[in-house]
Design brief:
Molybdenum Cofactor Biosythetic Enzyme, Chain A; 392 residues; Molybdopterin biosynthesis moeA protein, domain 3; single chain; binds ligand LQZAQKY5; 6-stranded mixed β-sheet; Molybdopterin biosynthesis moea protein, domain 2; alpha/beta; 26 strands; binds molybdate ion; 18% helix
Length: 392
Amino acid sequence: MISVEQALAQVLSLAPAPRGERVPLDQAWGRILLEPAVSRMTQPPFDASAMDGYAIRAADIGQTLRVVGEAAAGHPYAGKAAPGVAVRIFTGAPVPAGFDRVIMQENVARDADSITITDPSGTANIRPAGDDFREGHRLEAGRKLSAADIALLAAMNVPVVTVARRARVAILAGGDELVPPGVAPGPGQIISSNDLAIAGLVRQAGADPHILPIARDTEDSLRAGFAAAQGSDLLVTIGGASVGDHDLIGKVSADLGLQRAFYRVAMRPGKPLMAGTLGDIPMLGLPGNPVSAMVCAILFVQPIIAATQGWSFERPLRKARLAADLPAEGNRQHYLRARLTDGPDLPVIQPFPSQDSARLSLMAQADALLVRPAGDPPRLAGDIVEYLSLTG
Ligand SMILES: Nc1nc2c(c(=O)[nH]1)N[C@H]1C(S)=C(S)[C@@H](COP(=O)(O)OP(=O)(O)OC[C@H]3O[C@@H](n4cnc5c(N)ncnc54)[C@H](O)[C@@H]3O)O[C@H]1N2
Ligand code: MOO
């Protein structure tokens, strides 16, 4: 058995280099920027009015001013400032040359073509050219593009960006007991859920899942499943990873030439995890118990997808206070399904009394995985412990 840290390093070393594609901005949200984007604009491109009102010279405050023209957004005023004059101006309009204040119209009394300033206090109400960013401003590679990033790129006049191609992830669940949701299970059968859980986690990491037909517990059926995964960027198998007579993933993948990086990790749940490269595709073989499969996907599948897309998707370890005493840990790092509530300083974490790795109903209620290192001594209520958030 290797440690979780060693396993993660080995998994990440299997990730192929990210490949880029050019997409227009309306398709770029949530994608990973692979090449820096460089602004072709200065923003604002001109000194812009921040208010509806009158452009004046600060030196003229106290005088009655003559309104000589109008500047609206998209309709600049062609003239310049002169002593004793004002220009009617609207938000977003270029401030004509020579004016250095905009007085809000609420602070002005207008009489035909004349204005008197009733309240000269306040700021200039002018956004100077380049106040936001200048030509050449860069948005660096490696970020997941947010709504604000897309707006910024648009304002930079960068209509097309290079983002990482979404990894295509083949998901192969196997087991004679499995039927898809909606099918009436026969004797001894259950509904396959893991493939759908993993597909959700794959999507969360920004990749495209491709759920293959459920494989039977035969070498031929598994071989057909592996063949169907050709052309994917990553293959994730679920189940059949343990030592039972019908656990064939290890044998079939080895027969097909898997370069195995490791098998078995010192973690709980998720010990019978394997990883390697099959042909030129990285493969992760997840254990079949539903919670084990999900924990392995959170710890290993999501990070390798991120790496394949030029990104780092690491859930930070956060601190919380234990709600109840816990016994000493064994020789595997333990990820306990838990609930978080607010506390006076840190959140309070309450692990569920049952940690059975088959209990999906508890996984669905968990908002955190309490992480206990191998060999952790007994802990008391109130002790500070670490957790991974499942809710973001
Ligand atoms: N003698 C030993 N037995 C087991 C060991 C061990 O070390 N020695 N490890 C146990 C642990 S830990 C786990 S985890 C499981 C992993 O087993 P497999 O990866 O071989 O998974 P299966 O046997 O195929 O399935 C386990 C369990 O999960 C259910 N399952 C599988 N696939 C799905 C699916 N797509 N959707 C829903 N449920 C699924 C399956 O029906 C089984 O109940 O091995 C232990 N045994
Ligand atoms: O990985 Mo097994 O989960 O310990 O149930």
